[in-house]
């Protein structure tokens, strides 16, 4: 979310600062595995370094590479790990030293969300998480391989699927 | 023709081209059923976003263990990964000019692009020096949470005409952690002096410390009991308080 400021910024540096956190967060939520997410986000950037120049639309390029890396990594791991396992060590959750009660509540809420996401088909999960990171339809289409003209329809379906997978919530519309 | 899912979602996400947008707008004027449909879709979207916001942000602080899982990388890419990982960790605090971090990133990028086998530049042995500040793009809503610090830590807030949301460390040290909608500023033990610039066009920015709201800027208007100093700044005291 943050960006570097100052004169003479290198385009790659700017891109790194602007896009790395978003890419890592997307992968983290997609995989439920913080270490893997970080590795894949790095790998995506390394592939970008390796290119002779920046692609036309680097955000779309990065998210496409990252999504493919995730799909490959998951296929390679087979069943050894669960997708989006709800358990994340409590000490890894949240901000530096909020009150313990707060941390617990936040962790519980996160667990419910993770569990609901885990029940969705892969495509729905990717769509929702890309949307949440603010990617445009064109970028989402590129990353997921879905025709851009039907992104809206599939997003609507994915939202319904998430709603159905989430436990009863009095605040839900 | 009523709105289908595709057009409803595109309306919501500003993904319609101009003729389509005008057609939808005209239809919504005339059709209560579709207005209700859009309202429901907006509520659904809001609920979904609130749920997803409950997911913890990835920990940006790295550990050497983070490297173990790389399997297929060639040796040099493993090296490179080490570097970028460290950099990402340091990246929790986005450095402004004056920090050693950007220069270091540059050297790393340079090293990777050269195809020699020289060892990579050494990462700073400890975390890079505390950055002199952070700049965030304007978001729909941002909470700035001030924590840590000795009694007498102070943030001076000014509302400016343009630019990003900026927090500079003018005295002492502070660490920054940012995620969507939230910036955590943790002052060092000896306290910190902060300079905060909020652009007038930021829709909603609140500044909190020790669980209390100290300052609120909403739609360009300061809603806060704090009075301005002679230079037009708002001085907010924080730090040193017992935990609530
Ligand atoms: Zn209608």
What are the salient characteristics of this protein?
heterodimer, A: mainly alpha, Arc Repressor Mutant, subunit A, 2 domains, 64% helix, 0% strand, globular, B: alpha/beta, nine-stranded mixed beta sheet, 5 helices, 30% helix, binds zinc ion
Portion of residues in helices of chain A? 55-70%
Q: What would you call the shape of chain A? A: globular
What bound compounds does this protein have? zinc ion
What structural category arises from helix and sheet content of chain A? mainly alpha
Radius of gyration from the alpha-carbon trace of chain A, in angstroms:
17 Å
Low-confidence region ranges of chain B: 61-131
Total count of helical runs of at least 4 residues of chain B? 5
Please summarize the sheet with the most strands of chain A. Answer: none
Tally of DSSP β-strands of chain A? 0
Domain tally of chain A: 2
Strand content of chain A: under 5%
Looking at how many chains there are and whether they match, the oligomeric state comes to heterodimer
Biggest chain-to-chain interface with counts: A-B, 70 and 71 residues
Draw up the topology in text.
The complex is a heterodimer of chains A (173) and B (244).
Chain A: H1 11-31, H2 34-50, H3 58-77, H4 100-118, H5 122-132, H6 137-144, H7 151-165
Helix pairs in contact in A: 1-2, 1-3, 2-3, 3-6, 5-7
Chain B: H1 5-12, H2 18-30, H3 32-53, H4 75-90, H5 101-113, E1 133-136, E2 142-148, E3 153-160, E4 165-179, E5 182-199, E6 204-209, E7 212-218, E8 221-222, E9 234-238
Parallel strand pairs in B: 2-5, 2-6, 3-5
Antiparallel strand pairs in B: 1-4, 3-9, 4-5, 6-7, 7-8
Helix pairs in contact in B: 1-3, 2-3, 4-5
The structure holds zinc ion.
Describe the structure.
The complex is a heterodimer of chains A (173) and B (244). Chain A is mostly helical and 173 residues long. Chain A has two domains: 86 residues, no CATH class; 76 residues, Arc Repressor Mutant, subunit A, CATH 1.10.10.10. Chain A is built from seven helices and no strands. In chain A, helix 3 runs parallel beside helix 6. Chain A starts with 10 loop residues before the first helix and ends in an 8-residue tail after the last helix. The N terminus of chain A is likely disordered. Chain B folds into two domains: 113 residues, no CATH class; 106 residues, no CATH class. Chain B is of the alpha/beta class and 244 residues long. The relative contact order of chain B is 0.11. In chain B, strands 1, 2, 3, 4, 5, 6, 7, 8 and 9 form a nine-stranded mixed sheet that branches. In chain B, helix 1 packs across helix 3 and helix 4 runs antiparallel to helix 5. Chain B contains five helices and nine strands. About 29% of the residues of chain B have low confidence. The complex binds zinc ion. Zinc ion (ZN) binds next to helix 3 of chain B. The site of zinc ion has 6 residues of chain B, from helix 3.
């Amino acid at each position: 979310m943050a960006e570097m400021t100052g004169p003479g910024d290198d385009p790659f540096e700017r891109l790194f600062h602007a896009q790395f956190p978003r890419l890592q967060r997307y992968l983290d939520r997609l995989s439920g595995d913080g270490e893997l997410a970080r590795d894949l986000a790095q790998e995506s950037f390394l592939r970008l370094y390796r290119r002779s120049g920046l692609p036309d639309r680097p955000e779309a390029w990065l998210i496409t590479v990252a999504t493919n890396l995730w799909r490959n990594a998951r296929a390679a791991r087979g069943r050894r790990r669960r997708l989006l396992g709800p358990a994340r060590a409590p000490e890894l959750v949240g901000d530096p030293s909020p009150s313990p009660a707060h941390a617990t509540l936040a962790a519980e809420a996160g667990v419910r969300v993770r569990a609901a996401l885990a029940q969705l088909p892969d495509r729905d999960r990717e769509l929702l998480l890309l949307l949440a990171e603010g990617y445009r339809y064109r970028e989402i289409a590129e990353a997921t391989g879905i025709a851009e003209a039907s992104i809206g329809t599939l997003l609507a379906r994915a939202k319904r699927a998430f709603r159905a997978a989430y436990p009863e919530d009095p605040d839900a519309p | 023709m009523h709105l289908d899912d595709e057009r409803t979602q595109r309306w919501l996400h500003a993904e319609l081209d101009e003729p389509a947008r005008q057609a939808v707008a005209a239809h919504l004027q005339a059709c209560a059923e579709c207005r209700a449909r859009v309202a429901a879709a907006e509520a659904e979207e809001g609920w979904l976003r609130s749920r997803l916001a409950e997911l913890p942000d990835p920990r940006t602080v790295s550990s050497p263990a983070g490297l173990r899982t790389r399997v297929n990388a060639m040796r040099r890419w493993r090296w490179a990964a080490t570097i970028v990982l460290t950099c990402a960790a340091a990246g929790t605090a986005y450095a402004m000019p004056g920090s050693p971090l950007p220069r270091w990133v540059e050297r790393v990028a340079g090293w990777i692009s050269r195809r020699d086998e020289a060892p990579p530049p050494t990462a700073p042995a400890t975390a890079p020096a505390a950055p002199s500040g952070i700049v965030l793009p304007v978001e729909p809503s941002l909470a700035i949470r001030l924590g840590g610090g000795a009694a007498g830590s102070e943030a001076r807030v000014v509302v400016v005409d343009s630019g990003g949301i900026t927090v500079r460390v003018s005295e002492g040290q502070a660490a920054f952690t940012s995620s969507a909608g939230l910036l955590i500023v943790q002052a060092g033990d000896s306290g910190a002096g902060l300079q905060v610039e909020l652009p007038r066009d930021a829709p909603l920015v609140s500044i909190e410390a020790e669980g209390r709201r100290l300052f609120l800027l909403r739609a360009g208007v300061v809603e806060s009991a704090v009075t301005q100093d002679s230079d037009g700044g708002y001085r907010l005291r924080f730090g040193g308080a017992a935990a609530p």
